[in-house]
Amino acid sequence: MVGVADPDPRVDLVWGPYARALGINLQRARAARGLSQEEVARQAGISGYTYYKYERGRSRPDTPMNPQLRALLALCQVLEVPLEDLLPPDCPDLRAGA
């Protein structure tokens, strides 16, 4: 069966800090617009709890967030910022075996 490989735990070591930095950028952009987490979530079409977890860089305990592109683009529109303003500058190397 062709599908997505099991996540490599080493990736979480580099993805975790990146996800947390993305969450900080979301929080800063929201604060700059004077919006609550609930307002952002509602306007972006995601649950308030999901957005709360995004700002913390987590999806489940001990698991970094990995939001869908659709959610990120909706958040950019709500927060009125380009995607590159939300994404941290140094993307980790996520290639298999890297």
Task: Tag the structure with descriptive keywords.
Lambda_DNA-bd_dom_sf, mainly alpha, 5 helices, DNA binding, 434 Repressor (Amino-terminal Domain), 98 residues, disordered N terminus, two-stranded antiparallel sheet, globular
Question: How is this fold's topology laid out?
Answer:
Layout: H1 9-33, H2 37-44, H3 48-56, E1 58-60, E2 63-64, H4 69-79, H5 83-86
Antiparallel strand pairs: 1-2
Please sum up the structure shown.
With 98 residues, this protein is mainly α. It has one domain: 434 Repressor (Amino-terminal Domain) (Orthogonal Bundle), CATH 1.10.260. It has five helices and two strands.
How much β-strand is present in the residues?
A: 5-15%
Structural class: mainly alpha
What topology, given as strand order, has the largest sheet?
A: 1-2
> Using DSSP, what is the number of strands?
2
Spatial separation of the terminal alpha carbons: 24 Å
Helical residue percent band = 55-70%
Mean pLDDT: 89
Query: Which superfamily, in CATH terms, is the homologous superfamily?
Result: lambda repressor-like DNA-binding domains
Using only C-alpha atoms, the radius of gyration works out to 14 Å
How many structural domains in the coordinates?
1
**Under the CATH scheme, which class?**
Mainly Alpha
Domain HTH cro/C1-type: 26-86
Pfam families: HTH_31 (PF13560)
Organism: Nocardioides simplex (Arthrobacter simplex)
Protein name: Helix-turn-helix transcriptional regulator
